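fyi for ur records
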Amino acid sequence: MTSTTAGLLDGVRDRLARAGREPGDDSAGHDGTGHDGTGHDDARRVDARLADALRASGRVIGSTALRELTRAARAELYGAGPLQHLLEETGVTDVLVNGPDDVWVDRGSGLERVPVSLGGPDDVRALAARLAAAGGGRLDDASPVVDARLPDGTRLHAVVAPVCAAGAVISLRVLRPSGFGLAELVAHGTVPPTWEPLLRVLVARRASMLVSGGTGTGKTTLLAALLALVPHDERVVCVEEARELVPDHPHVVPLTARRPNVEGAGGVELADLVRAALRMRPDRIVLGECRGAEVREVLMALNTGHEGGLATLHANDVGVIPARLEALAALAGMDRVAVAAQAASGLDVVLHLRRGGVEVARRRFLAQVGLVRRDDRTGLVVDLAASWDGSGDPRPGPAWGELVRRWSA
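which gave:
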């Protein structure tokens, strides 16, 4: 950034402060999103205010220069500064900062290092603190870890020293305003063509499904594609810790958890929101991610007439889903027998995603389909119905015949 540009931005910051509009004041709610759920309404208002502040500098600025300066001012004052252009790049899902000259991005084919310099450790820490403040959070020695939502919808996780070695470590997850439809996922090699009719039937016939996989395997992307298949006369209530689901569906009600403030008050847990969703006349209840005691409320909801629900879960394989559910449900005081009874009667199918190796260009792909059942001897079981390695034809598993018999069109 040139000294002239820096001086202009300092002047813009002063004018906004005098007008009572400090950077970071433009979030439209607790989740930091705009009216359309992605922050675009706020971005337009911010750009208009920044352009006015730049014109008020007294310098002669042409229309092209004004647009460029407005973009630079928004990135520096409201956005991610030197990282903003990476967040706006098409296809980028994650931007990760390990140090001043150690920046990585994921464009969908694995992590790539990018030539971006953020100055020194103090500059990285200052950037992390500013981003936390923009998301309504706090990041300092007394509170060295933050999860927040930026005004444009980007998810922020950051830690500062002494939790990390020096400066800060920043993780940014990009929220795209619209995702892929199921047909597009098939075209991109995420879903094998022969499984597309099956997934459509599962949604149409109101199968309750878990979408499982590791971090960054595309669970939310697949979940949004499945929700787009829900009939448009149905009401979908989505419960998430931080809003990521933006399905192509006309009747989606998003509910987002809220962390307690610095005094420890005002928090709203996922379990609270699942219970609230039951009173909102939902046709489908969706939990963006099962990660704690809220699994009890989800299983109870799926056993009280709310068929066709969906949720995501971190897991390594369909076979370990029972153990994962048991571990999470134990946090809510449920024993193994209760989990087996509730899950076997409330859940139908597990869809498991993986990120491929070099042989499939590190693509995210739907690797397994599992069928949920209860065994009187072993408890909850997820049988492998079919598997796919990201290329060629899927292979049927032991439970394929039962899956087809139960869910054939």
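Confidence is low (pLDDT under 50) at residues 21-41. thats all i got for now
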